[in-house]
């Protein structure tokens, strides 16, 4: 069964505790936290303070997606705040292997993210060092954008390599996932899907999550 990571970017920020409790009760697997710096992406969202505020209110793994320049400068503060998984964009890392090792040395699970146009060849030599590979199926920066289906060719190619090498990392998809697009994600080899507006924009958030997860 595919794991679902609701993105709190689409939640009501004035009621984050209850917004997280709703998805946890509905069967969410991870909580996805979108950190944007206004430089790497054209939007500013939240930082380690928000991770710290959320931490006491859920047992679920906190999946922190860093859409920021100089991620090395901030990883330690996110780990201290309670991040379980930290993913960094390959496009922001001059020394990707070093960054991943650093995250692991802090006791956190490292992952790498690819923008829609970034080829999987850029990560082929770190596949044994990651807990998760995250594929963007929108251009990062905003929730509520349309799913880019051509990314699924990359997902399927990586899923094949993962199987051939007998590796265990998760394959996560982020952007435009809903109860329809999730089917193609799973068919291509996704093991985790992020969903923001499809869950938090729904009148019945629990039903929306269950429909994506297939537990309705
Ligand atoms: C986009 C973020 C996504 C976003 C997904 O830059 O990384 O996690 O919140 O939102 P939806 O599911 O609405 O596309
Ligand atoms: Zn994200």
TrEMBL record:
It catalyses: D-ribulose 5-phosphate = D-xylulose 5-phosphate. Pathway: Carbohydrate degradation. The keyword Nuclease does not apply. The keyword Metal-binding applies. Its EC number is 5.1.3.1. Its cofactor is Co(2+); a divalent metal cation; Mn(2+); Fe(2+). Gene3D superfamilies: Aldolase class I. It comes from the Bacteria. A divalent metal cation binds at residues 32, 34, 65, 174. InterPro entries: Aldolase_TIM, Ribul_P_3_epim, Ribul_P_3_epim-like, RibuloseP-bd_barrel. Substrate binds at residues 7, 65, 141-144, 174-176, 196-197. It is an enzyme of class 5 (isomerase). PROSITE patterns: RIBUL_P_3_EPIMER_1 (PS01085). GO terms for molecular function: D-ribulose-phosphate 3-epimerase activity. CDD domains: RPE. Binds 1 divalent metal cation per subunit. Keywords: Carbohydrate metabolism, Isomerase, Metal-binding. Coiled coil: none annotated. The active site is at 34 (proton acceptor), 174 (proton donor). Belongs to the ribulose-phosphate 3-epimerase family. NCBIfam families: PRK05581.1-4 (NF004076), rpe (TIGR01163). Catalyzes the reversible epimerization of D-ribulose 5-phosphate to D-xylulose 5-phosphate. This is Ribulose-phosphate 3-epimerase. It comes from Chryseomicrobium palamuruense. The gene is rpe.
